[in-house]
C-alpha cells in the first residue's frame, strides 16, 4: 500500500464549510484521513504544504484538445485534476472507438485525466443523432456539439427527448448561427470603430430562450457551455428558480477581458464566444459570486501561424490551461471574485453537474491541488506546457502558483 | 491586464511624426493640417509641365493590393512616380495567397526585395495595422483600405476637397449618406472631420446600414434624408454595393433611390452653396441622380485629382518619419556604444 501524507495545509472546501489547517493522508490514491494539522505521524512520503491552500482539484467543463500529452500536462500545471474535452477534436469523437482511444491516450499520458465529451450529432453536423447511448456506455460523461450548429429546433427537441429517455447530460452552446454569421467580435462601439463585423447579444439570448423552452418541454438535463452575456445570467437564474434542470458555465477569458481588449486588433483576443462588454463581464462575475455559474478554461491551443494574421482571419481560441488557476486567483486578488465562489465554480459545481464526488472527503479519490495563493507569478512562452502560446497573460504579473496537483490520487504536477 | 498596442499610436514616431498612415483616428489637428498643407503645395506642382519632385528618389514602393481596385491603385502609382520612387504593382488577389501562401509569407518575400514602403489594401479590418506591426523597422505602411475599418487617404482627400472649396473645415455641417455600416471611408471621414473642427457630422441611412454606435464616434444619426440634409454645407454620398439587397439589408435599388438617392430636389434642402462629393465609382440612379453628379455643385472629379496630391503628401511624410526614426535609433545605439567604451 502506498501512503502519501500532506501536512499543514490550509484546507478549503466551501461545500462542507471547511477552512482549516489540516493534514491529509492518501492511501492508494484515496483520501483515507483528514485531520487537524500536527496530528499526523511523520512519514517518508510527505509534502509540507505550510502557507499554501489545499483545494479540491479543478474540474474543467470544457476544453478543446488535439495533442493529449502536452495539453493534459498543461492542465496538471494549471491545477486541473479532471478535464472534459470537447468532441471537435481530430478525429471527431462520435463513436465508442474514438472515446476509448482518448481514454487510452489519457491513461498513458498520466497527467490530468480526461473525461471525454461525445458528439451529440454524427460528425457534429447537427442533423442526425450520434449513437448517444453507446457513447455514454463507452465512457462519455456528457455529450456536446462543441460550438457546431444543430440544424433546427426539431432536431434539438429530438436530442433532448432521447437524452432524457436515457438520462444523458447534454451540453449546449447558445448561439443562433444566422444572427452571429460572419461576426468576429461583440457587437458594440469597439466593433464599430474597428470595422469588425459584430456578434450581437441576441445571437446568444434568442438561442438560449429557445433552448430553455425546450428543456421545459422535455425535462432534459442541460448544461449551457460558455454563456457570455449579462442577460443570459438573468435567464439562467430565472429558469433555475422555476426548477428547470439546467446549469451553465463561463469561459475564463470572458471574466478577465472585455471587447475593449480587442482595440489593438490583437488576435489573441479573438475567441468564441466573443469577449462582451465590461457590463457583461461584471454580470458574469456576479453570477459566479452568487454561485449560479461554473467557470471553464475553454482552452484552445493554436499554433503561431493560426494567430499571426489580421484579427478576422486569425483562428479563434485562447490557450488558458497552464495559467487557469493563476488567472482566477488574480481575479480573487483584485477583489472581483470571492475565493469560496471561485472554488465552487471551478470544482464543486462542475463535480455536481457531472455527477461526480464533490469537494474533499475521506474515502474519495484524491483529486486536489495545492496552491500558493499569495505568490507572484509571470508566465513566459517557454513556461507553458501547452503547444498553444496564444495565451494573453504571457509577461503579465499574476497571483497564485500551483505547487502540487493530484488526479485520481496520482501526482501529476509538482513545482 | 491588457497588453495591446493602440492602433492609433502605431503610426507615429516617438516624437509624434507620421511613420505609417493607417487611420485618421487619434491623429492631432496639427498633423492632419500638415498633410493638407503639404498636399496643397503638391497640387501646384501637378499643374506644371514637369510634375516630378525628388522626395522619394531611390526608394521602392510596393502596391500590395489583396482586393482589386484599379482606381485607387493607379492614383497611388502615379503619386509614387511623381515623388520619383520606383513602384512595383502586385496583384495579390490573383496570385500568391490564392496558392496557399500566408500573408506573412508574402510579406517576408517582399521585404527580401528591400522595399521601403508598402501600400496595402486588404479585405480584413486591421490588416494594415497587422502588417505595420510585423514589418522590419524602417518600412512604411500606407493603408489603402482595410475591411470596414479605415481608408485614411480617401478621407484626407475629401478633407482637402472641402477645404479648397469651403476655405476651412471649421464650422462646416457635413452629411454622409448611405451604407455607413460597411464603409471604411465614412469611419475615416468622421474621425478626420471631428478632429478638424467640423460643426456637425450627420450620417443618413436606414437602420440596417447605420449602426447606432456611430453616435459614439460623434456623428448624429438621421433616418430621414430630408431632415438630414437641411442646411448642410457638404453632402458626401457613399457607393451602394449590389450585395446589400441579397443580404436582406435593403429591399431594392429602386426603393433605396427613392428614400436615400440624391436628387436635385433633395439637394435644394442643403445650403445653396453646398458641395456634393462621392468617393467613386458612382452608381448613377442608385445613390445619385446624373443631374446632380454632373451638376454645378458636384466636386466629384476634383476629388480624384486631389487624391494624387494627398497620397504624395502622406507617402513623403511617412518616409521622412521612418528616416528620422532610423536616424534617432542609430544615434542612440552609437551613444550606448560610446558609454561602454
CA-atom Rg of chain A in angstroms: 21 Å
**Largest sheet of chain B, if any?**
5 strands, parallel
Distance between the termini of chain B: 40 Å
Characterize the overall form of chain A. globular
**What kind of sheet is the major sheet of chain A?**
9 strands, parallel
The CATH class of the largest domain in chain B, by name, is Alpha Beta
Strand content of chain B: 5-15%
What string, H for helix and E for strand, traces the elements of chain B in order?
HEHEHEHEHEHEEHEHHHEHH
Q: Which architecture of the largest domain in chain B does the CATH hierarchy give at level 2?
A: 3-Layer(aba) Sandwich
Number of domains of chain A: 1
CATH H level, superfamily name of chain A: Metal-dependent hydrolases
- Taken as a percent bin, the fraction of beta residues of chain A is 25-35%
How many whole angstroms does the radius of gyration of chain B measure?
21 Å
Unreliable sequence segments of chain A: none
CATH names the topology of the largest domain in chain B as: Rossmann fold
Amino acid at each position: 500500500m502506498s501512503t502519501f501524507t500532506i501536512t499543514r495545509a490550509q484546507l478549503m472546501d466551501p461545500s462542507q464549510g471547511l477552512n482549516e489547517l489540516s493534514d491529509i493522508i492518501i492511501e492508494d490514491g484515496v483520501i483515507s484521513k483528514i485531520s487537524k494539522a500536527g496530528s499526523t505521524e511523520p512519514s517518508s512520503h510527505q509534502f509540507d504544504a505550510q502557507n499554501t491552500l489545499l483545494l479540491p482539484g479543478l474540474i474543467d467543463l470544457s476544453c478543446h484538445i488535439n495533442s493529449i500529452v502536452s495539453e493534459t500536462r498543461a492542465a496538471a500545471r494549471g491545477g486541473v485534476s479532471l478535464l472534459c474535452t470537447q468532441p471537435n477534436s481530430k478525429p471527431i469523437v462520435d463513436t465508442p472507438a474514438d472515446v476509448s482511444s482518448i481514454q487510452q491516450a489519457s491513461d498513458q499520458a498520466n497527467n490530468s485525466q480526461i473525461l471525454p465529451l461525445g458528439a451529440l450529432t454524427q460528425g457534429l453536423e447537427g442533423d442526425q443523432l450520434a449513437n448517444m447511448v453507446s457513447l455514454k456506455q463507452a465512457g462519455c460523461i456528457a455529450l456536446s456539439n462543441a460550438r457546431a450548429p444543430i440544424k433546427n429546433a426539431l432536431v434539438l427537441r429530438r436530442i433532448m427527448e432521447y437524452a432524457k429517455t436515457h438520462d444523458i447530460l447534454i451540453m449546449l452552446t447558445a448561439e443562433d448561427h444566422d444572427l452571429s454569421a460572419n461576426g468576429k467580435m461583440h457587437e458594440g462601439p469597439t466593433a464599430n470603430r474597428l470595422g469588425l463585423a459584430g456578434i450581437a447579444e441576441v445571437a446568444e439570448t434568442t438561442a438560449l430562450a429557445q433552448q430553455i423552452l425546450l428543456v421545459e418541454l422535455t425535462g432534459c438535463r442541460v448544461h449551457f457551455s460558455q454563456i457570455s452575456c449579462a442577460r443570459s445570467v438573468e435567464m439562467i437564474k430565472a429558469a433555475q428558480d422555476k426548477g428547470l434542470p439546467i446549469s451553465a458555465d463561463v469561459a475564463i477569458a470572458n471574466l478577465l477581458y472585455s471587447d475593449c481588449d480587442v482595440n489593438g486588433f490583437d488576435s489573441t483576443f479573438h475567441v468564441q464566444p466573443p469577449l462582451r462588454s465590461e457590463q457583461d463581464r461584471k454580470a458574469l462575475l456576479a453570477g459566479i459570486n452568487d454561485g449560479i455559474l461554473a467557470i471553464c478554461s475553454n482552452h484552445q491551443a493554436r499554433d503561431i501561424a493560426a494567430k499571426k494574421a489580421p484579427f478576422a482571419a486569425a483562428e479563434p481560441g485562447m490557450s488558458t490551461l497552464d495559467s487557469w488557476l493563476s488567472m482566477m486567483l488574480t481575479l480573487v486578488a483584485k477583489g472581483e471574485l470571492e475565493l469560496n465562489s471561485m472554488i465552487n465554480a471551478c470544482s464543486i459545481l462542475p463535480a455536481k453537474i457531472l455527477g461526480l464526488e464533490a469537494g474533499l472527503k475521506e474515502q474519495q479519490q484524491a483529486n486536489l491541488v495545492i496552491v500558493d495563493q499569495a505568490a507572484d507569478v509571470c508566465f513566459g512562452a517557454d513556461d507553458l506546457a501547452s503547444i498553444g502560446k496564444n495565451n494573453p497573460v504571457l509577461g503579465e504579473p499574476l497571483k497564485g502558483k500551483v505547487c502540487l496537483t493530484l488526479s485520481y490520487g496520482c501526482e501529476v504536477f509538482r513545482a | 491586464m491588457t497588453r495591446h498596442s493602440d492602433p492609433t499610436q502605431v503610426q507615429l514616431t516617438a516624437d509624434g511624426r507620421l511613420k505609417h498612415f493607417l487611420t485618421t483616428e487619434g491623429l492631432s489637428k496639427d498633423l492632419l493640417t500638415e498633410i493638407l498643407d503639404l498636399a496643397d503645395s503638391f497640387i501646384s506642382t501637378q499643374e506644371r509641365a514637369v510634375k516630378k519632385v525628388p522626395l522619394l528618389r531611390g526608394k521602392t514602393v510596393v502596391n500590395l493590393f489583396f482586393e482589386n481596385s484599379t482606381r485607387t491603385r493607379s492614383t497611388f502609382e502615379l503619386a509614387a512616380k511623381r515623388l520619383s520612387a520606383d513602384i512595383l504593382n502586385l496583384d495579390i488577389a490573383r496570385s500568391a495567397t490564392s496558392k496557399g501562401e500566408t500573408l506573412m509569407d508574402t510579406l517576408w518575400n517582399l521585404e527580401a526585395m528591400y522595399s521601403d514602403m508598402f501600400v496595402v489594401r486588404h479585405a480584413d479590418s486591421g490588416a494594415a495595422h497587422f502588417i505595420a506591426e510585423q514589418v522590419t523597422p524602417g518600412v512604411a505602411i500606407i493603408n489603402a483600405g482595410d475591411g470596414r475599418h479605415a481608408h485614411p487617404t480617401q478621407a484626407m482627400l475629401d478633407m482637402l476637397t472641402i477645404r479648397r472649396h469651403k476655405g476651412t473645415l471649421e464650422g462646416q455641417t457635413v452629411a454622409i449618406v448611405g451604407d455607413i455600416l460597411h464603409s471604411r471611408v465614412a469611419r475615416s471621414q468622421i474621425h478626420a472631420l471631428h478632429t478638424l473642427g467640423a460643426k456637425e457630422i450627420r450620417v443618413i441611412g436606414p437602420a440596417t446600414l447605420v449602426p447606432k454606435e456611430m453616435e459614439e464616434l460623434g456623428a448624429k444619426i438621421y433616418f430621414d434624408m430630408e431632415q438630414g440634409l437641411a442646411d448642410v454645407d457638404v453632402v458626401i454620398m457613399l457607393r451602394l454595393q449590389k450585395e446589400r439587397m441579397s443580404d436582406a439589408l435593403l429591399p431594392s435599388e429602386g426603393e433605396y433611390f427613392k428614400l436615400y438617392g440624391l436628387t436635385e430636389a433633395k439637394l435644394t434642402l442643403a445650403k445653396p452653396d453646398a458641395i456634393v462629393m462621392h468617393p467613386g465609382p458612382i452608381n448613377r440612379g442608385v445613390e445619385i441622380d446624373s443631374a446632380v453628379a454632373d451638376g454645378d455643385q458636384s466636386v466629384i472629379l476634383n476629388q480624384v485629382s486631389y487624391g494624387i496630391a494627398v497620397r504624395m503628401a502622406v507617402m513623403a511624410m511617412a518616409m521622412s518619419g521612418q528616416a528620422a526614426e532610423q536616424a534617432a535609433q542609430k544615434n542612440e545605439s552609437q551613444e550606448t556604444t560610446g558609454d561602454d567604451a
